[in-house]
Every structure is written in C-alpha cells, then in structure tokens.
Amino acid sequence: MARRSRIKTEVPSAIQDEFNARLVAGGFADYEGLTAWLNERLAEEGLSVRISKTSAFRYGAEFQEQFERDMAEQRQLYQIAKTSLADNQDTEGVVREATIRTMQTRLLRLSIALRDAEEAGDDPHLLAKTSSQIAKAIADLGRTDIMSQKYKAEILKEERAKQIAAAKAAEPIAKKAGLSEDDWAAIRAKFLGVEVA
Questions:
Q1: Which of 29, 59, 165, 189 is an S-S bond match for 196, by CB 3.0 to 4.6 Å?
Q2: Contact 163, 192 (CB under 8 A)
C-alpha cells in the first residue's frame, strides 16, 4: 500500500503552495533549509505537525516529477502552436488537437492517482464517484476528438472544392492567353497539388 505524504495530508494547502514555490525557486535543492522553513512556518500557524527532511525530500521529488511533466506539456503545446503558425495551418484546429491530447494525458494521470488512492484505502464511494466522472470525461473527450476530425475533414473538402473552382475559372483565361493544353495541364496540376498524367 502506498504511503501518503504528510505534507499532502497534514499541511494546509496555502502553506503547501508556498512550499511548492520555494521548491521551484530553489531548483529542488537544499531540502535541509526547506524543511527548517516549513517547520517554522507550521509553528507560526500554531500547528504541531513536524515534517522530516526525508518526508520533504520524497514530497519534493514527486512534485518535481509532476512539475517537469507539466513543463514538458507546455513546451509541446508551444512547439505545436509555433509550427502551425509557421506553416499557416488552421491554428484553431491545432490548438484544439493539442488541448485534447493534453486532457487525455491528464485523465490518464488522474486514473493512476485514483488507483493509488484506492490502494491507500481511501473512501470507496468517493473513488467510485470519481471513477465515473473520469469515465464520462474520457467519453466526452472521445466525442470531441471525433467531431474535431470531422470538422477538419469538412474544412479540407471545402478548401479542395475552392481550389477546383478556381482552376476551372482560370482555364478560359489561360486559353485566351495562348497557353497550350500541356502547359495549362502542368499549371493546373501544380495549383491543385496533383501529379501531371
């Protein structure tokens, strides 16, 4: 059974947030100083909780892992947005896709955390309710993904129809300008992004 962190279970969330900020600012180092600060801060609040350096280190290592995963997600989203803008792609669609992938990753992590909570002996009724909510969120995300794929296919179909209509409209102009059938076929194929037969 996984052991729950005393920092998570006994330290008020406001102090946890301060501790997290100090962990990040200090580069996840100096656990001796951080533990001393945390215990002083708890004493200031009149709490009798005492945190060991080992407990602070375990919590910090877990928080660092989560922090680095979150930062990697942010870098990935930034790269997707940067690439889509450079390629003049549908930025709204790319951001939507990135958001869906991020939510899938987070729901998976939440499922793993839920399993850990179950192993730690948390309230089974609360776990069942949370599991149901996660399942619903995954189903909703799946539907959103399908709708997004359909929307993308519709946009591509509309763009293709516009390209074909533009090529048809340009054909009389090309013939009037004296282009040969072969020259016009090559231009049309390049415009439509197809191979010349």
A1: 189
A2: yes
